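Structure ticket #2291
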Amino acid sequence: MANERLEKLRALMEENGMDAYYVPSSDFHDSEYVEDFFRCRAYVSGFTGSAGTLVVTKDFAGVWTDGRYFVQAKKQLAGQDVELMKMGEEGVPTIDKFLADNLPEGGVLGMDGRVVNTGIGRGFEKIVADKNAKLAIRKDLVGEIWEARPELEAPTVWVLEEQFAGESTESKIARLRAEMEEKGATMHIVSTLDDIAWLLNIRKETTDGNVLPTAHVMVTKDTLRLFIDNKNCSDAVMTYFAANGVTVEEYDKIYEAVAEVRNEKILLEPDKVNFALYSSVDASNTVIEAMNPTSMMKAVKNPVEVENLRKCHIKDGVALTKFIYWIKQNVGKIELTETEAAEKLEEFRKAQEGYLGPSFDTISAYGANAAMCHYHATKEEESKIEANGFYLVDSGGQYYDGTTDVTRTIVVGPATDEMKKHFTWVMMGTLRLANAKFLLGCRGMNLDYQARGALWQQGLDFNHGTGHGVGFVSSVHERPNGIRWKIVPERMDSCILDEGMFQSDEPGLYIEGSHGIRTENLLICHRAEKNMYGQFMNFETLTFAPIDLDAVDISVMEPSDVRMLNAYHKEVYEKLSPYMTEEENEWLKEATREIGGGYTWTI
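Resolution: structure written out below.
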């Protein structure tokens, strides 16, 4: 089926005089959450991972993706006329290099410029200039061959009240306009959905974790124009917009509105505005390129948000811990598949007050499936959870009072000594990072070794970042804060860590064909003491759920690791036990018991 679609795409390319066609994974807003309408790359190639780019020429098709998806992509592309291009691996060219080498002189590179961010688009402009070639950015060729393409639905918008958001929309808009003035801008164009949702304190109803309404915004000193499909906006929401000086216009009119602007100083972030929109800006305007000011503003959670996050993480911890107890009691006794386990976890979350839905698609992975760190089970293709080895679940929830993201690797049966060592080294990294103390001015890159050190000592590693920023009732991956051992420019997640920043702590280890391990908690950053050496910083762990002691090999731990684990488990029991049944608490007490008593280490 995928090969047939590929040939249809090539036929349209020939009809439109295109020598190469570029199909990314993004939507019109370069969003984390991409609606089914935009899954063009998956439709043509058969690779369904959330990150990847398809490039098609007359005689080649390849999907470029990163290390999180190598195993999954290899499996899904088997038998297809699409080659897996492992990004970052030796001998694998970048997409730019591939196009520079393979686009013919005087040729045409095609794409739908609405799903290509401007940073990428400008890179393509340089490539075609060097080849005396052309860009064609107004053709959605996949849309022309996609039968029964899902609709792009109008969002049902609701207002996130100040008791949760901690700051009024009026205040946020005023802060944004002050930043614009400081940067010398008379207009600001915003297309990033998390920035717009934060600025206007709006969210949308969701069943899939995406609470961010699809919209664009144009802000001046005196006006704020919101471009949104408002068919499902209630009278109360429209009144709210009017009260905050927000003029609502048709979603698709943004391109026309931008094209009409003259002689303004426009602040925008090229990598977060689509290429078709950027190309609509008239030459009479001056473009000021900078990160959207709201991105840094929303990264620093205010005291109300922080307190709400503490509350929602207790609820989420209760749901996850009840699930862990349930699966421990039932695995091997009942027939259980990966999707059924995920559905059971969702039941426990739905029982929590203020629950809105999952914050992302649950990764429910048994055995070797967990080695694909972004594996997604379906009813059509999944595994049964047997009473043997490890089961990994990475999941999260959206609540009125916050967003959660947590991973636990659960022992469901006998595990080898090697598996237990792997589990313990990963867990040690999670705890060491959570307990790090550092000076203000440090970035995530300065802290990453805390999480990887135990693995690196064994010549092991994991091929993804250690931590990402997390939004507040928003995207589960949020810039500009993050934790990784090297800077990845396009992720824009290497800012200085400061008070109120909210991020994940998730080292892992993935052994293809055998098992995968990840232990993830969420952390909030705080300022600690300030003295002659500077302002010290530390983290507060917000996630509370037991770490499976059945997989812990104390012989590879330092005494400090044991103390950190015991201290964490003490908090888990104290915070969660009031919400558990008598039977659950009996189990939880054992699951969070202190370990290491009488053990002698050789240091």
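Closing remark: The chain has three domains: 2-145, 157-291, 300-486+503-523+540-591.
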